[in-house]
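[agent] plan:
  1. take the single chain provided in the ticket
  2. run structure prediction with default settings
  3. attach structure tokens to the ticket
  4. add a short note for the reviewer (M.T.)
[agent] executing step 1
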Amino acid sequence: MLVRTRHFGEIELDKDKIIRFDNGILGFENFKDYTLLYDDKEGEGPIISWLQNLEEPSLALPVINPFLVMDDYNPEVEDELLHSLGELRDDNIIVLVTITVPSKVQDMTANLKAPIIINSETKKGCQIVAQNNDYEIKHQIYNKLKALKEAKGVK
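[agent] step 2 finished; step 3 output follows
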């Protein structure tokens, strides 16, 4: 299927790459179908990906693996909130958090309070709010990402 995107123009997308969010995501509850897009020029996998909505080309959220910015990330959630995704295991769960990149890039933050959980087998996702108060909505990540890039030898 042909999909118009915010950052990648028109792309051909296989239907097995569609992730369904039955309840949408916070602030965008009416938008249900998404895909993950990224630019992988270096061939090492992305640090930042885009959660691209398939119905609205301008709706694309930058997302990152929270473990890249916080090693011991462990949000507490009610199991009931995850049942609709199917059985989650270490080999099929994808955890992402949205990031905000303001005009001053050094003020970049990640929303660790509301992770996005995806079952890679069922292609179902949801966004939940962590019950524990250990995580911020605006967790500073610029220095951590800068250190990750330097470790990979990327400028």
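[agent] step 4 note for reviewer: The helical segments are 142-152.
[agent] ticket updated
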